Amino acid sequence: MIPATTSARLKKRRTRHLRERVIEGVLFLAASISVFTTVAIVYILVKESVVFFQQVPLKDFLFDTQWTPLFDDAHFGIVVLLSGTVVSSVVALCVAIPLGTIIAIYLSEFAPFALRELAKPFLELLGGVPTIIYGYFALIFVTPLLQKIYPDLPGFNLLSAGLVMGIMIIPYVSSLSEDAMRAVPMSLREGSYAMGATRLQTALKVVMPAATSGIASAYILGISRAVGETMILAVAAGMQPNLTWNPLEPAATVTTYIVQVALGDLPHGSIGYQTIFVAGLSLMLMTLMLNIVGHILRKKYREAY
Amino acid sequence: METTANAEQLVAKAQAQNLSFYYSDYQALKSINMTVHEKKVTALIGPSGCGKSTLLRCFNRMHDLYPGNRYEGGIRLHPDNTDLLSPDVDPIEVRMRISMVFQKPNPFPKSIYENVAYGLRVRGVNKRVILDEKVEEALRDAALWDEVKERLDDLASNLSGGQQQRLCIARALATEPEMILFDEPTSALDPIATANIEELISELKEKVTILIVTHNMQQAARVSDFTAYMYLGELVEFGATDQIFIKPQKKETEDYITGRFG
Ligand SMILES: Nc1ncnc2c1ncn2[C@@H]1O[C@H](COP(=O)(O)OP(=O)(O)OP(=O)(O)O)[C@@H](O)[C@H]1O
Ligand SMILES: [Mg+2]
Question: Which residue's CA is minimally distant from atom 31 of ligand 1?
Fold first, then answer.
């Protein structure tokens, strides 16, 4: 005969086990929602893009130099939109990467403790400002300022939008880079100082190389932000497709094109409607590629110290 | 062991004079007076927390790196006969002349070659021929050359712990310092690597003055000419190693050395 106490214990364990299982299930469900959403987005983008490519040859999509999907004489050269994205991103990164890196070096290696604690929330605030506000700041403040230097600058241009976008991205670059540099063990810095190095030499020759993987991630995140940014460009860069590598011109980007067309009322199934999805897919592929590069860099430099 | 240490001509390299040190309000060193002799090995021994590392790190002004640290008294550096703790003395200049090897090997995330060349580059030496020559010399002096000469461009982190520590010694040697500070350089190493480093230290004293912190009394007895016993921030006894180990003057020293305490 089994004693009553034993069976009572057994019963308790069973409920605990059940509870574990339920919690596990809930967690799994939560995790699968995000995976499912990603898969669904990719599925829709690919499915609609397939429809698009049944009508437009891939060759035209890649090599045509015009993007006029809504005209009677329709052209679908994605490079037109990509040029806007690339130029505005390059301008933004020319601001964000040097400034973000310098700020990170300063805060991590030079700033006194109190200043560092003060500066961090301010920088994070900079990243929290809604991008529409940056957009208007570019259009109403920065563009007129630039026009004082260069009077022929059009009211909408990639330069002004890119510069402001760069400012927006600074905190993403600086915050992650600073974390990476601060994670470098003190013993490495001491080793450098003990050799008679200055603070700057220590920061540039020892701390930064040791933090390469984290700094690379920060840069990749910055690039992703620039490529995906929409509002600032929609407001300040104009939205007409324009194949240009000149930041002084207005141009549409992949993102602003999507906004523009998505807001219009195109009939479902029309080729114009389909372009939203190929544009979206292109954007997705770009960010995916960046993520992969970031992953490789992190892997490569992970155990630097 | 040199029993003649006292009889030889001794030249002072550095002299701590009434040296006290404070971590903010905590006094970690209490009026230390001690002489480090040129081209001799001086060992600092004593129980954990007695201030050995703190004293060692005064000699290259390492404490300047952190806010709130304060020195009192001085350390006279010879032949200049200058107080290296004085506010007019640039700690970087001090560190250019007094190198340091740490408890845990801390090679930089660079190649073996660049690790050794680091101190030279910091001093503005960038000529490849000079660097090549000095790097080789330092690696030879650190007894590492034969093991790494084929792979100078490999990352230093690929070396074993003992090799990394010898690399750090080579790094410290490359700039031809007058004095090297060792903070328990073998505590992270196995017995063979430890023996290598000890042998190396004995050879190095031909060239440089050495101040070494060690937990290991046999090590102190093996490698040093002079020994300082510290306790609770004070220098209890200082003398020739033989004398300290064979007939210590103070009861505390004897208790520590014979293992009755610590
Ligand atoms: N950064 C610091 N801030 C405050 N107190 C410190 C600091 N570093 C060390 N101390 C204190 O100073 C005293 C001496 O420390 P020190 O590191 O010099 O000891 P040690 O003799 O080297 O010990 P060990 O053999 O364990 O390395 C200890 O009481 C320690 O707690
Ligand atoms: Mg110590």
Answer: B49
CATH superfamily of A79-304: MetI-like (1.10.3720.10)
**ipTM associated with this complex:** 0.91
Predicted pLDDT of residue A139 = 95
Count how many residues are written for chain A.
305
Model confidence over A126-171: pLDDT tens digits? 888 999 999 999 999 999 999 999 999 999 999 999 999 999 999 9
Q: Is A193 in Cβ contact with B122 (below 8 Å)?
A: no
Compute CA distances B53 → A68, A134, A151, A180, B230, whole Å.
Answer: 73, 53, 65, 28, 11
| Cα A144 to Cα A138: distance, rounded to the nearest angstrom | 9
Return the domain boundaries, chain A.
Answer: 4-54, 79-304
Pocket residues: Cβ below 6 A from ligand 1: B 23, 26, 28, 46, 48-54, 215
Closest ligand to the CA of B57: 1
pTM for the model stands at 0.85
The two three-digit tokens of residue B219, written as one number: 């090590």
Compute the nearest-CA separation of A286 from chain B (Å).
31
Q: What are the extents of the domains in chain B?
A: 4-103+178-257
Is B3 within 8 Å of chain A by CB? no
| B124 contacts chain A (CB < 8 A) | no
Query: Nearest-CA neighbor of B35 among B53, B11, B52, B54?
Result: B11
The verdict on B172 touching A (C-beta cutoff 8 Å) is yes
Rounded to the nearest whole angstrom, what is the distance from the C-alpha of residue A205 to the centroid of ligand 1?
Answer: 29
- Under CATH, which number does the domain B4-103+178-257 receive? 3.40.50.300
| The pLDDT of residue B7 is above 60 | no
**Residue pair B41/A169 in contact by the 8 Å Cβ criterion:** no
